[in-house]
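Weekly modeling sync, notes
Attendees: S.R. (lead), two postdocs, one rotation student

Agenda item 3: backlog of single-chain predictions. S.R. asked that every request posted to the team notebook include the full sequence so nobody has to chase files. The rotation student volunteered to paste the first one in as an example of the format we agreed on. Action items at the bottom.

Example entry:
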Amino acid sequence: MELDRYWRERDEAGAENAKPRFVPLEKCTPNIPLVEYERNLRRIVELAWNHGATVWLATSPDAFTTNEFRDREEAYESTASVQLSMLRLGSIKSFRELAEIHARYNDAVRRVGAELGVVVVDVEEAFRVRSADRLFLDSDAVHPPDLGHAIRSGAALCSTRSVWGTLANEGRCRGERAPRAMMQNRSLTARAGGSPDGSSRHMPMALTGPRSTP
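Predicted structure, as returned to the notebook:
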């Protein structure tokens, strides 16, 4: 990854302020290309099934799914310049490019879910349902504040067959706040690996839990 190379060359230069020989690539090359990402998702599902687990796949939203920032990627660059500078180290030149890459990986999650018959927790769609709310700050396009995490957890909760009917009747399956215990449970996450900018924090993911009987 280009950011890793940047820091490695900086360390090798021997001085904290030394300038490494770093030239960003002309085109973004994710650590985990799309084909490999889909293969990893299938393998995660296979391994989980082999261990008796039920698997959910989940998409991931970004700021440009909301009304506040939709089609405003260029304007967003002025308020999120720090994040954009980090993205550019990974050869992502704009937030519009980030949104396009993000959409491709979300579509991959949906394809694999449909192919394998796995439940897809479509967090991106849950954010679209609540797109009139302030779900992202103007300085960070990929990490939502508390309300966004509540919507993410609510989408996962509403995807469990055992509670679907009850929650739907209560009107709680359209991106509304989930129970605190669900928001705090982060132990069921297994990443398919990597993200467009080289981190692994905000990519679509696979969620696994105890396997239930259909």
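Discussion: group reviewed the output briefly. Residues 29-210 form one domain.
Action items: rotation student to repeat for the remaining queue; S.R. to check formatting next week.
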